Amino acid sequence: MTQLYALTGKLAELQAMADTDDEGLKEALQHAMDEIAGDFNEKADNIVMLRRNIESDVTAIDNEIERLAELKRIKSNSVTQISDYLRRNMEAANIKTIKRPLFTITLAAGREKVIVDNEDAVPDELTVVKSSIAPDKTAIAAKLKEIREHNEAVRKRMAAGEDAEHELIEEPAYAHLERGDSSIRIK
Predict the structure, then answer these.
(1) Which is a Pfam family this sequence falls into (predicted)?
(2) Cβ distance 14 to 36 under 8 Å?
(3) Number of structural domains, the chain?
């Protein structure tokens, strides 16, 4: 089976040749384009089926990731519970160290930690201020579109002979609009 890009090239060549006055040639070209379009559609079907297979693999992988994450959470909780069980019993028995052939278990005193009872009463010199500044891309997009639409309207007026060049708004250097890749929708 021919590759999709090859079919695309053939179709483009035939479409370029279709601009002729010879009815017989036009009919032959149209027949050839219909045949290539059929092959193109079949290839597109195959690509969509391949895409669906890969999507199902991605879904299965996502499900496995969720299952493994849950298993990890359960195992981590078990480790914490077992360690806590040993710690509580060592504390109750007042045992600080257990020496075994493969490892040594030591009951270490916990670190001191600060518990803030009233945040409003903490002096300013003992606080940290956090803030973040980020561009508002929605507002920037709206402003850039507004400038583009204004300039397009002014350019149309200028093309019609009006002297309106002084009304053009300079596009900002801090951002620009860029169209993303087109997408395929399959329903």
Answers:
(1) Sipho_Gp157
(2) yes
(3) 2
- Assess contact for 59 and 52: CB atoms under 8 A: no
At a CB cut-off of 8 Å and minimum separation 6, what does 175 contact? Answer: 135, 140, 144
Residue 118, domain member (yes or no): no
Q: Which domain holds residue 149?
A: 133-177
Neighbours of 10 (CB within 10 A): 17
Residue ranges in 94-167 assigned as alpha helix (H) = 137-159
Classify residue 122: in a domain, yes or no.
Answer: no
Q: Mind listing the pLDDT tens digit of every residue in the chain (187 residues)? A: 578 777 777 777 777 777 767 777 777 777 777 787 777 788 888 888 989 999 999 999 999 999 999 999 999 999 999 998 999 999 899 998 899 898 899 988 888 888 889 989 988 888 998 888 889 999 999 999 999 999 999 999 999 998 988 999 998 888 999 888 766 565 5
Query: Is 36:30 a contact under the CB 8 Å cutoff?
Result: no
- Based on the domain organization, do 30 and 87 belong to the same domain? yes
Residue 145 placed within a domain: yes
Give the CA dihedral 40, 42, 45, 50, nearest 10 degrees: -90
Q: Are 158 and 148 in contact (CB under 8 A)?
A: no
Structure tokens at 55: 């999507």
